[in-house]
Amino acid sequence: MKTLYALLKRRMMMPVIFIVLFAMAFMFDDLKTIYRGYLNILQSPSVLISDYLHIGGLGATLFNVATIMLINIIMLSVLKLKMTGPIFAGLLTIAGFSFFGKNIFNTIPIYIGIYLHARVQRLEFKSFIIVVLFSTGISPIVSFLIFGTGWPFYIGVPAGIAIGVLTGFVLPALGAHTIRFHKGYNLYNIGFAMGILSMLYAAMLQTLFRFDLFRFDSTISEAFHTELLILTILLSTIFIISGFINDRGVLKKYPKLMATTGRLVSDYIRDHGRDIAMVNVGVMGFISVLAILLLDIKISGAVMGGILTVMGFGAFGKHPRNSVPVMVGAALWYLYVFHVRGEASVGLAIAVLFVTAIAPIAGRFGILFGIFAGFVHIVLTPFTYAFQGGFDLYNNGFAAGFVAAILVPIFEFIRKDNGKEMSS
Model pTM greater than 0.85? Predict the structure, then answer.
């Protein structure tokens, strides 16, 4: 406890999260079970939605999350980078998606590709760190080519690694271009860029090789709902406590943070201080918990990924004022589909959380516009998944790009107040 308190006092949140996740992995399973489960995770095609809780079990999944977090924490330390809002969001997003699609095997080739891009551009690798942290949303393409095609390993392994490196190489340029498409109203900009690449990959694989990209087992596991709910509450509490440890009057800064639209680039650690940013992260965690409890959503690997991503972006554009309206809009459609149609879909469930990618729309235009945007987003999301073949784990970021590109010009025309931020 003294060690954890000391880390919180020094604002070293990521080591705290790593310690919690690593310790919990061995609380739930023994070493042999974790080893077998982790091998299953590494050998999974990992396309959306591959729930690692179902594939490898809770202990192995937590070990996978902790391992990938540790690698990225070490990388940031070696590069001597200070914690910022985007970096914090990237790390928690990595942790979230390590519950369903990311592992050490399918992420490294993409990192290498970005490194090569930096070398060709004669720029420092660390200048691309934001792209690096969000890049692995397209990592399933690596695992699919190696483990999902049926090709022999002497073909699949080189093909998977080569495509991973190529993807990382082109992603920085593509991400810089796509932000213009949605004008910064999609917080998951790299997810939109990866959706475009994934759409190209899906079309080529289906046309040239006639692969059925949707044949894989998408079974989810809700067996660990209670444990993961407790983990979410624990992490959210730790974040809030960390904010108060160093600044007892931290809440005085909250109104100013909540007055922001959240539009890219909104770095809450840089602009408002790490303490209030961490409090906001914890609050967004509790809002996520409240949403899944009210909607009776059970936590699977994908839902846990959504929760951690929402929390991560509490340092990079999301807060209750701009997030709740879009979540309400998405929840209305989810409730209709679930209770009126009698249909259940994990894709719709996680969209209620990931819809916060377009939180800046509510922050800019107000509550009613935010609700409508959230509704449009959740309706559109299943269609974008069909386009990108499951290679883009950030499918909601792909959908959010189109939602923002379509609705923002219309909203600006209706309000006739271009460039002016809303305070309502």
Answer: yes
